[in-house]
Amino acid sequence: MPKILILTGDAAEDLEVLYPYQRLLEEGYEVDVAAPSVKKLQFVVHDFVPGFDTYTEKPGHSWDSDVAFADVAPEAYAALVIPGGRAPEYLRLDADVQRIVRHFFEADKPVAQICHGALTLAAAGVLDGRRTAAYPACAPEVRLAGGTFVDAEAVVDGNLVSARAWPDHPAWMRAFVGLLREKAPVAS
Q1: Residue 165 — φ and ψ, nearest 5°?
Q2: pLDDT of residue 63
Q3: Could you tell me the pTM of the whole model?
Q4: DSSP 3-state assignment of 12?
Q5: What number of other Cβ atoms are within 10 A of residue 106's Cβ?
Q6: Which residues contact 11 (CB under 8 A, 6 or more apart)?
Q7: Distance from the Cα of residue 77 to its chain's centroid
Q8: Strand runs (DSSP E) across the chain, as ranges?
C-alpha cells in the first residue's frame, strides 16, 4: 500500500490536516503525520467574524504525529500533503522540511498544498516557474519565489495540486486523488 506523508505542526489549520488525512485513508493509502517531533499536536480553526479585517483563530483538534521531520525518509512515501494554517510560517525554516519537500519535486511525486502551505514551497525553492493557488495573502511570497499565483479552487501544475483554503477541499482533493490514482495507485 503506498504511503503518503503530511507535513504539519502546531497551529496547522484543523480542516486542512484532518480532511486530507481521512480522505486519503478512505482511498486506501497509509498516511503518516510528520511534525518537528513526535508529540500531540494542537491544530487551530480559522474563520471569519463580522467586523474583523482578517480571519480569527480558535483552538481545534489535537492529533498525534507519527514521525519527526529529522527521521523522515521521503523515498518511502509516494506523495506529500502540506496543510496551511500558521504552521508553515515556522515549519518552512526547518532544514529537514526543505529536504523533504525538495525530494518530492525532484522525484516528480504528487504534492498537494493548500492555503499557507505555499510558504513552505517558497522557502524550499520549488515554486520557480510554477503556477499555484494559495491563501491570497500569500500571493506576494509566491511571486517572490518565482511562481505564478492563481486564485482558483484547484490548480494542477505537473505534480503539484494546490488550493486557496479549506472551502476548496472538494475540488482540491478530487484533483489530488486523480493524480494519485495515475502516479501511485492503490493495489486492488
Answers
A1: -170, 180
A2: 98
A3: 0.97
A4: strand
A5: 10
A6: 42, 43, 44, 57, 85, 86, 87
A7: 14
A8: 3-7, 30-35, 40-47, 56-64, 67-68, 79-82, 111-114, 131-132, 148-149, 155-157, 160-163
Phi, psi of 87 (to 5 degrees): -50, -45
Question: What one-letter code names the amino acid at 73?
Answer: A
Amino acid letter, 64: D
For residue 84, count other CB atoms closer than 10 A to its CB: 29
Grid cell, residue 99, equals 529536504
Looking up cell 516557474, which residue turns up?
129
Q: Assign 60 to helix, strand or coil.
A: strand
Helix (H, G, I), strand (E, B) or coil at 79: strand
Catalytic residue set: 116
Strands 155-157 and 160-163, sheet pairing = antiparallel
* Contact residues for 168 (Cβ-Cβ < 8 A; gap 6+): 114, 133, 153, 154
| C-alpha span between 188 and 181 (Å, rounded) | 11
Assigned C-alpha cell, 177: 486523488
At 178 the pLDDT is 98
State yes or no: pLDDT of 188 exceeds 80: no
